[in-house]
Amino acid sequence: MTDKPAAPRPTLEAVAARAGVSRATVSRVVNGGAGVTAPLASKVMRVVEELGYVPNRAARSLVTRRHDAVAVIIAEPETRVFTDPFFGRQLRGISKELTAHDSQLVLLLVEEKSDYARVGRYLAGGHVDGALVFSVHTQDELPAIVRASGLPTVFGGRPDPVEESTPYVDCDNRGGAREAVRHLLSLGRGQVAHITGPLDQTSAVDRLDGYRDVVPDADAALIAEGDFTPEGGERAMRELLERSPGLDAVFAANDLSASGALRVLREAGRRVPEDVAVIGFDDMVPLAGRTEPPLTTVRQDIEEMGRMMARLLLRSLERGPARGAAGPEPEADPASIVTPTVLVRRTSA
Amino acid sequence: MTDKPAAPRPTLEAVAARAGVSRATVSRVVNGGAGVTAPLASKVMRVVEELGYVPNRAARSLVTRRHDAVAVIIAEPETRVFTDPFFGRQLRGISKELTAHDSQLVLLLVEEKSDYARVGRYLAGGHVDGALVFSVHTQDELPAIVRASGLPTVFGGRPDPVEESTPYVDCDNRGGAREAVRHLLSLGRGQVAHITGPLDQTSAVDRLDGYRDVVPDADAALIAEGDFTPEGGERAMRELLERSPGLDAVFAANDLSASGALRVLREAGRRVPEDVAVIGFDDMVPLAGRTEPPLTTVRQDIEEMGRMMARLLLRSLERGPARGAAGPEPEADPASIVTPTVLVRRTSA
DNA sequence: GCGGATCCAGAAAGCGCTCTCATGAACGGG
DNA sequence: CCCGTTCATGAGAGCGCTTTCTGGATCCGC
Predict the structure, then answer these.
(1) How far is B88 from chain A (nearest CA, A)?
(2) Which of A46, A310, B46, B89 is found 20 to 30 A from B181 (Cα to Cα)?
(3) Are residues B146 and B224 located together in one domain of the fold?
(4) Statement to judge: residues A207 and A257 lie in one domain
């Protein structure tokens, strides 16, 4: 009838008593064992094992002021978040890196502006050691809110404007776009159109810039604004066909728009790639390989980007969070990272 | 030159001093203000506001033994995790619900069996109040490990075997499958084939069972094993075409396999839906609406399932975690929830 | 108008841990 | 063989908070 009295988890005290040493010694052993003689250390370890002792994180961070936890903030109102495996892949990279450093991942999903205050409060509350923030919209208030917390931060995707103090990790949107357009040119296409993404996102702007780098004198009629959705891609493609019936290639700012473009081209009786070559961006799984025809696209290593974000953050944490001016070697802030992209050739171009 | 001395966050003590009351009073106000006279309370609140006081969670949980945090454990070796927006959508539902209850979401991504021990340790370490676990494989050790922690838990997807003590939330896989197959029958199809998922996952088994419920006497040649991937779907479809050339309908266990089946059917010169009707499962965005032709499929409300998992867990937390036998009203454990599915008709069937 | 019940506020004891500091043993040099 | 070091260990303070317990004021009924 009487249950076990809820098996109280063993404390440092308990381990110390059982091993016949002081709490301080057990603490030292648990934290790496520096300055404890081997025989004593192994004795303590045995007791730790035996009792199944696990340190109480709350007690520990109360005194160390470290939490071994970082917040991952994903702010995306509805669209894209998780429609697209993008964030998932990124999370995976982050998780791997954090786990390796014995840090926890606290996930904060933000959907509405009204959540911003909550996030700010949480960060200011000092429950985590740092933050990884996904902010893709220009003129977003989130970066400022996060900065106000004073927490070491790394952005995913280039924020706008860029602040020297907070590094970011992004793929080479501009370079990837250039490569895509150059490839279309190398195929002998003379009228390369571009379907942009929503231009309030830096990635969309950068891809457009890359396109312009290669065809600086492109007719404005060859550029149509999309929104990273299949429907937007369809709309843009229809526009383009009307304005520039002679086009023979399309570079879409992402795979989703490209899939929409593909559909419209098919309906219009244009063969891909014979009449019109198409290239997307992202190499989105499982979409890109399953379109009709399979999509040539620019791939970014999303998981690796996540891992880099975490690595960057952890490194700045090691150097002590927000160290004052007293720090001996200023040791430059870790710089932002731009990862390379690679053109994946399939059938559409 | 001299930086501000790192602006120490105000403590309860500071607020108390400033408001001219004791720490205890401030604590009471911060935690709801029960038993404090209105004028005093509002005075304290003003100071809290003024100083931007945020309680230190570590200190609080040290004494309350609550953490206002829930672990979300996603165990999927490579495949599917985040290739598929499934978990992302689920996370969103969970996040919304937890946020509303002021709880944190600690994400634990598990890739290999070797990570299981780490998870077990983390849970046993008592850093979270409960756990939400995604466990779809039969005979997986994870459920046992999680149960060993003694933490209140809710599973996502029916675990196998089911334990009375830990509820789960799943969609009505079997019922959804039945509806799909019945729909095919109602279209006048007489030879309905089935491409299964990997049969070590309960969802795949349940969908197969649903298929069998409707066509109990189906020829074994009409069933081919897939693995929830497009490639598996292609393989299975080819097999089926060879074994049962007369088939006129296919129910694929998920949209990904259905997309593979579609491709093989097209190559084989079978028109969809005229010659062969096809139905998938999941209503996976953005795939299902973009296949050729658009896929008829069984939709499950993933986000809602996530929200329900969180709600179930929070409810059992409110009733006190792992209350002993002394609890006055046993108040039945929250029961598992099976959410309904809905058939989404597009073009393929 | 007095005694007892009621209620609000404060004092103080920890929660489990880390870390500084003091202590004493072991050691080596003169 | 003694003294100054060095180094491993233990004692104890305290991180910021909640919560019991207690004191004192207020209120009610008789």
Answers:
(1) 5
(2) B89
(3) no
(4) yes
Interface contact flag, B118 A99, Cβ < 8 Å: yes
Clarify whether residues A177 and A167 are in a common domain.
no
Whether residue A108 lies within 8 A of chain B, CB to CB, comes out as yes
Question: B197: which residues sit within 8 A by CB, 6+ positions away?
Answer: B203, B204, B207, B226, B227, B228, B253, B254, B257
Q: What six digits make up the tokens of B329?
A: 């009203």
Q: Using only C-alpha atoms, what is the Rg of chain B?
A: 26
Nearest CA in chain B to A285: B83
What value does the mean pLDDT take over residues B168-196? 97
A31 strand C contact, CB < 7 Å:
yes
Q: Are residues A22 and A84 in the same domain?
A: no
Residue B21 (CA) to nucleotide D28 (C1'), in angstroms, measures 28
Is residue A212, in this structure, part of any structural domain at all? yes
Q: What is the pLDDT of residue B285?
A: 80
- The tens digit of pLDDT for each residue in B297-308 reads 999 999 999 999
Test mutation, B51, B57, B108, B111, chain A, max A CBs within 10 A? B57
The interface residues of chain B toward chain A in range 172-211, judged by CB-CB distance below 8 A, are none
Pair (B249, B334) in one structural domain: no
Question: How far apart are alpha carbons B167 and B312 in whole angstroms?
Answer: 8
Measured CA to C1', the nucleotide nearest B16 is C10
B96 touches chain A (CB under 8 A): yes
Best of B290, B292, B305, B323 to disrupt the A interface (most A CBs within 10 Å) is B290
Query: What does the alpha-carbon distance between residue A259 and residue B279 come to, in Å, rounded to a whole number?
Result: 21
Say which range, A34-43, A330-339, B192-201, B254-263, has the weakest mean pLDDT. A330-339
Judge whether residue A81 has pLDDT over 80. no
Residues B166 and B308 in one domain: yes
* CATH classification at residue A28: 1.10.260.40
The 3-class secondary structure across A292-326, one letter per residue, is CCCCEEEEECHHHHHHHHHHHHHHHHHCCCCCCCC
Domain carrying residue A264: 173-300
Encoded amino acid at A70, one letter? V
Q: Is the pLDDT of residue A1 over 50?
A: no
Task: Evaluate whether residue B197 is within a structural domain.
Answer: yes
CB B248 within 8 A of CB B189: yes
B173, amino acid identity: N
The rounded distance, in Å, linking the Cα atoms of A143 and A323 is 21
pLDDT higher than threshold 90 for residue A328 = no
Residue with CA nearest C1' of nucleotide C19: A24
CA of B12 to C1' of D24 (A): 24
Going by C-alpha positions, the residue among B100, B174, B110, B173 that lies closest to residue B143 is B110
Q: Is the CB of A66 less than 7 A from some atom of nucleic acid strand C?
A: no
Which CATH number does the domain housing residue A151 bear? 3.40.50.2300
How many domains does one find in chain A? Answer: 3
- Closest-CA distance, B150 to chain A, in angstroms, reads 9
Question: On the CB side of A23, how many CA atoms lie within 13 Å of its CA?
Answer: 6
Q: Domain check: are A190 and A296 in the same one?
A: yes
Could you count the other beta carbons within 10 Å of the beta carbon of residue B92? 22
Residue pair B202/B154 in contact (Cβ under 8 Å)? The answer is no
Considering all nucleic acid strands, name the nucleotide whose C1' atom is nearest to the C-alpha of residue A63.
D15
With CA of A22 and C1' of each nucleotide, the nearest comes out as D10
Reading the block at residue B64, the tokens are 């309350």
Can you give the pTM of this predicted structure? 0.89
Q: Are residues B77 and B193 in the same domain?
A: no
> For residue B210, is it within any domain?
yes
Is A65's CB less than 7 Å from nucleic acid strand C?
no
Listed by number, the residues of chain A in 34-63 with a beta carbon closer than 8 Å to a beta carbon of chain B are 52, 54-59, 61-62
Quickly give B37 CA vs C1 C1' distance in Å: 28
| Nearest-neighbour CA in chain B from A216: distance (Å) | 33
Does the residue A60 lie in any domain? no
Residue pair A68/A55 in contact by the 8 Å Cβ criterion: no
